[in-house]
Write a structure and sequence with these properties.
about 260 residues; two-stranded parallel sheet
């Protein structure tokens, strides 16, 4: 792994915890030492050991050219290059690195507990390679292959989505405080409510909209609250604008990385 910050570290810890990777089979190149699972080697440069089966780019996207300048020649013909760099397209990676296959991957932070989402894309039509990459990502959560034209939108929805949900949890708790609940209790209630509702929705045989209707009795308190959320499509409009803004920014970063 080249770079191992919050996201790369979350992936690595889950891979090791799930038994997918052995800690002593992983080398991390970092600018400075970070807390990593015991047995993982980290250094400032690529190891002199045998050529790796795969290289994962997990540094900041802004460091792409610096990393390519330092390591591209030494990584020539690596069998598999996986990039989790937001806004960096396969064509931009292939122009900088010579690899047997280049895979774009977009994980989100819950991969660290095996409940995340990993979106994948590659132009390489190799079923065995695709299956191997999907199997590697499977312990991290839901794995989806995504068309290149949809990758920015998926990044906005699933990659940025946890941050948007955290804002919602804070807002839900704040709304409870506005009705007189102590702040710490409102936070606990909001967290538990979102956690339980999400687990129930993922296991249900109907969609979230139908579940909302099941909770809302005619003329009851839930219905009154839903009436506010549903008025003029305000909630849908807000989230549509939110996802659109993030999608546009992903496209801007992709355009910059092409140059």
């Amino acid at each position: 792994m080249i770079g191992c910050g919050n996201m790369g570290g979350a992936m690595l810890r889950q891979w090791i915890a799930s038994g997918t990777l052995a800690a002593n089979a992983v080398d991390v190149v970092n600018r400075g030492d970070r807390p990593l699972p015991e047995g993982v080697r980290q250094a400032r440069d690529l190891p002199d050991a045998a050529f790796p089966d795969a290289v994962i780019l997990a540094m900041k996207p802004q460091q792409l050219d610096e990393v390519a300048a330092r390591f591209a020649d030494r990584l020539a013909d690596v069998p598999l290059l996986v990039s989790i760099l937001a806004g960096v397209e396969e064509i931009a990676l292939a122009r900088r690195f010579c690899a047997g296959a280049v895979i774009r991957a977009m994980p989100n932070l819950p991969v660290g507990i095996g409940k995340g989402v990993v979106a994948l894309d590659t132009s390489r039509d190799d079923p065995a390679m695709r299956n191997a990459v999907a199997a590697l990502m499977a312990p991290l959560g839901l794995v989806e292959w995504v068309a290149p034209a949809q990758f920015d939108a998926v990044t906005a929805l699933a990659g940025s989505g946890p941050a948007f949900l955290y804002r919602f949890i804070d807002a839900l708790a704040a709304a409870g405080v506005a009705q007189g609940l102590p702040a710490d209790q409102a936070q606990r209630l909001a967290l538990a409510t979102v956690e339980g509702a999400g687990l129930l929705a993922s296991a249900a045989d109907v969609g979230p909209g139908a579940l909302a209707e099941r909770v809302a009795s005619p003329g009851g308190s839930t219905r009154k609250g839903l009436d506010v959320l549903d008025a003029d499509g305000a909630l849908t409009a807000l989230l549509t604008e939110t996802i659109a803004a993030a999608t546009r920014r992903n496209a801007e970063m992709a355009a910059a990385a092409r140059n």
